[in-house]
Amino acid sequence: MIDRRRVKVLFDEATIARRNEEIAREIAASEPKDLLVVAILKGSFMFAADLIRAMHRSGLAPQVEFMHLSSYRAATVSSGQVAILRDVDSEVRDRDVLLVDDILESGRTIAFAKDLLAARGARVSTCVLLEKPGKRAVSVKPDFVGFVCPDLFVVGYGMDVAHSFRELPFIGVVEKDGDATPPND
Ligand code: IMP
Ligand code: MG
Known about the structure:
The protein is α/β, with parallel strands linked by helices. The protein has helices spanning 13-29, 45-57, 108-119; strands at residues 7-11, 36-41, 63-70, 83-86, 96-104, 123-131, 144-148, 154-155, 171-174.
C-alpha cells in the first residue's frame, strides 16, 4: 500500500481545475481548425481527459488520439532517447494538431513528437501541464503551459514514480530522500 502522507501537495485539485479552464479558453482563442488533440501517454492521460472536457466547455470539438512515447528508462533523469511505443492512427496532414504532455523538462519528448507530426504535414502546437525551467536540452517553446514547476520530481495527476501515484488527483512531491526509482512516462 502507498502511504499518501508521504506526498506533499504542490498543486491541489481546485487549482488544477481552474487552470485547465483557463488553458482551454486560451486554446479556443487561438481558433484551431479541424483540431486533433494528441495526448502523449502515459503521463498526460489525466490532464488530457480534464483538458479535453474543458475544451468542450470552451466551445471546441477536438478529435482525440494517443501516442505512447517513452524517454525515461533507467533513472529519474532523462535517458536522452525517445521511443515510439504506440503511434497515432489518424491522418494528420493539413490538420491543426495539439500535442498534450504532462511535463516539459529536457524538451526531447515534445520536440520528438512535434518533429514527427510536422514531418507528416500537421500544423503542430504544444500544451504542457508543467514546465520545468532551466532544464532544456533541446530548444522547444510550448504554446500553452499550465504551471511553472520547481525543479523537483513530481508525481500524481497521471504522473508516476515506478508506476505509483498516478491516481492522485493533485500534483505533489514524494517526501522521501535516498534512492530514486524510475518513472514510466
Ligand atoms: P523531457 O523529454 O525531458 O522533456 O521529459 C518529459 C517527460 O519526462 C515527461 O513526459 C514525463 O513523462 C517525464 N518526467 C519529467 N520530469 C518528471 C517528474 O518530475 N515526474 C514524473 N515524470 C517526469
Ligand atoms: Mg510523459
